[in-house]
Structure formats: C-alpha cells, structure tokens
Amino acid sequence: MPVTYEQAVKNQLQKELGISSLLCQLLVQRGIQDYDTAKAFFRPNLEMLHDPFSMKDMAKAVERIQLAIQNKENILLYGDYDVDGTTCVSLLYTFLSGIYTNIEYYIPDRYKEGYGLSKAGIQFAKSKNCTLLIAMDCGIKAHEKVAFAQQLGIDCIICDHHQPDDNLPDAIAVLDPKRKDCPYPYKELSGCGVVFKLIQAFAKKEQIPFETIAPLLDFVAVSICCDIVDMTGENRVMAYFGIWQLNKQPRLGFKALLAETNRQYPYDVNDIVFGLGPMINAAGRLGDAKKAVRLLLANDKQVAQSNAQFLAHQNKERRALDSSILKEAQEMIGDNPNNSDSFVLFNKDWHKGVLGISASRIVEQYHRPTIILTESNGKAVGSARSIQGFNLYKTLLACEHLFDNFGGHDHAAGLTLSLDKIEVFRTLFEQLSSKTLNNDLRQAKIPIAATINLEEITPRFYRILKQFAPFGPKNRRPIFEVRDVKDTGHSRLLKNNHLKLEITSEEGTIYKGIAFNMGQHYEYIKTKQPFNLAFVLEENHWKGRSKLELMVKDIQVPTSAE
Fold first, then answer.
1. Which of 33, 369, 437, 522 could make an SS bond with 342 (beta carbons 3.0 to 4.6 A apart)?
2. The domain made up of 446-561 is a member of CATH 2.40.50.460
3. In terms of pTM, does the model score above 0.85?
4. Could you tell me the residue ranges of all domains in the chain?
C-alpha cells in the first residue's frame, strides 16, 4: 500500500524528533510538518511575537498617546464589561499608570448602556475633561459614537478584534487585525491581545525594555482563555507565558480570585476558564463590572481579598439564575428537540446578564445553534452561541435587516431587535439553519484525535503531551479512544450516576478513571466484558502527589448490551 503524504510527514517527524508515532500524528493534525515548526510549537519564545507596527494604524495610535502625555491631556480607558474588556482596561491602566497620572477608566453598565461605546461613557469622558478615549474590545462599528466624541472634542483610538464593516469609524486610529487593509500576520488576537500590541509598540518607541511589559501577559492569557479565541500562533505564545506568570508571580487580584476557586496549583486553561472567568464576568453580569477592574488593579492584599469574596458571591447568584433560565428553556424546547435545527427562545423576565451562559448550556445539551432573548429597555436583547462547523456570524449577517445592532464572531454574538420582530427573526434563522446544517453537523460527535493502547500511556508520553498545552480552539486537548478494555473488578457506581473506573487491557496494563453521568453502563461494565472508552488524560494532584487518570468523555458498549 503506498504511503500517504500525511504518513510520510509523520514518519519524517518521528525520525527527526525521536518521539512516538502517535505524538507525531497529533502534530500533523495541528499543521506541524517539519522540525523547525515543531521546535517552535514545543518551545514558545517571546521573540516569536510579531512586530506591533505591522498592524495598520499602530504608528498613529502610538503618536497620539505620546502627544497626550506630552500635553498632559486626560485619557479615558474604555472597555467592555466581560473578561476581555475588563482585562483590557486593567492591562493598559497598569502600564500607563507607571509612567503617567492623568488617566481615568470606564466600563459601561450592561443594562443601562448595553454593549460597546456609549454616549454615557463619552459624556463621562467629557465631564473628566478627557481629550483622548481609547476604546478596547469594542468600537469597531461605533461610527455614530466616534462622531459624537469628535463633536465634544474627544479623539478616539479603537482597539478591537471583532469583525469590522467595510467602512470603519472615523477614529484617529483603528487597531483591528481583522480589518481588510491590515497586513498584521496573525488575525485571531483577543481584544486584550490587541491592547498588548499597542503597549508593545509604545514601549518600543519609548525604548522601554520588553522585560518591563512581559509580566503584563497574565492579563492577556486570561483574556485569550476566556474569550475562546484560537490557541494558535501568537495567542498560544502569549498564553503560555501569561499562564507561567499566573503560576509563578500572580498579581494580588488574580491570587485572591484563585484562592476563592479552591483550585489547586499549578493552574491551567481550565482553571482560568471555569475558575477565574466566571467570577470576573459575574461583576458585569449582575452589577458593576468596574468592581472586577478594581480587583485586578488592587495593590493591597485586603482590598484584593474583599473584592474577590464579593465576586465569588456574585458568581453564586449568577449560577442560581442560570439554572432557572436553563430549566425554563428546556421546557420551551420540549420533548422533541430534533424537530428544530436551531433555537430562538424568548422570555421577557430572564436576566440579561446570564443569557450567554444559558445559550452555551443549551448548545451543550442539544447541539443546536441557540439564541436566548429577553426584554430590556423595550427591546429584545440576547446572546447567540453556535456549534462546531456552523458560522453563526455569517448567518446573523443574513438577518441584519431585522436588528437594531449586532456583533460577534463565528461562535458567539450579541444582538438587539424590536420585540415585534422576534417571530420573523425566529422563522428566518430556522430557515437559514436548516439550509446550512447537514446530517453530520446535526449529530454531536466526539472528535477522537487518535486510537491508543493503554501501554502507550507512559510517563514520557505524558511529559511530551503536556507540552502541547496551553489548549484551546484549534489546539484542543487530544481525546483518545481505547478499545476492548475490561473492568478489573474494582470499578464502582458513585452518587449522582457517576462511575469510578478501573480498567485493564489484554496485556494487563491498569488505569483508573472517572466517568460523570454514565452510571447507566455500570451493569454491563461489571460483567468484565470488553468495551471502548473515549477520554482525555489528566493529572490529579493531591497532597503533593500526582497521578494520571482517564477523564472519560464517552463509553461505548456493544449495541446488543444496551
């Protein structure tokens, strides 16, 4: 049988790297085809970061900030109310406050002002005599607001990463790698990543050593992880060093928040996404997002702890609201979810601050593009979430004539429309979804990276696998499949339908694992008949000791046994 191109590349990598064929297969899946690219992947280096001045308008942005400092102008830092926006503001404030004092910051009220640059925020800038406003993680479509700021004598710099229109706002500088005329080589930066490039450019122009700004990458790492941008290229490099910073020298705010999560060191992407992220977001979802910024800027241990405790409390309230919305949404969907290719759900009493989370929960459960709407200020406002392979932004763009405004990307978006247009929108979105979704997309599939034997899971194998981290979109933690394993006789059924597994291969290699909500398979498993597992490898740290476990994603038993 002739060797395929992929096999040839894998074989060459194995020869050059001296690692297992299976690990080389994982590299090829990530587009890594030669020694140099593999070396860059395994050994991220801050010298790999691109020249910030290759971003369109960067020189203009730096010059305007230099002029503001030279003329002692007041500068307003304006950021969105989510993790990306609050880390943007915290990042730039931390940097600029080290060299300049005339700085204010502003986070819009989710309920009174909504997403993006607001008139209230611009009027706040005017009240503080600010003549320069730097909008972060928003502003790319804020044509009217930028014009309004100009009327008040306020110049704007926009640092955004969302998809722009063909026409850009008339700002002093528009930094967005996704703008069509921007030659910047990496397009998938988070909003905070764009702000870091601005800082990098400013530092370069002012001859500030890069080592001075490198510790700020913890802000960027948190934004990259929580905003679910691609974990490739420059994002992965910045996340790698930012997570290192978070583990080795965490600033007081992150340290206090991490203590509230009860998660164990060392911290990884999951700890950021499911630990830090929800608490930072909770401030803006249920109240004032400026509390998150105050926490991240804290220079006093007591201030950091009290703010962290407050955000932890807010997050508990958020979870209760989320559970309530999820239950009501499930009732709306009913017993036949497969009758629809998408869900557009509306309830005027749902809490606006948790719609995105609730939409994600519905997508996770039913595997359908989902939009959750509520009423706010006489309008229907909501959040949209997508499934893999379905371009949400493109589909919403086809409905744009129905919206007051909308914005987002392929996987997530926000929108506002008139209450009387909900039904028309629901019908159109369902029609477009039905045309796009094929049978493959309709079925939630576990993306198996490779079939593995338990004998291949050695300490060396796992040491190298860990170097694939940090994991995220386009660099997912590999899900492995192992076939024809059997119970050792020590697997057991736990509370809440969970399984504690101990399995063995034909060769006698034994591994333990946990399978949440899969207790229905226990009766078969305890017969010691063969079955298949899909799992990820996780290291369990307990009392200073580490052990490798299988975190089970799926159990497959013979059809006749079900």
1. 369
2. yes
3. yes
4. 1-40, 52-249, 334-442, 446-561
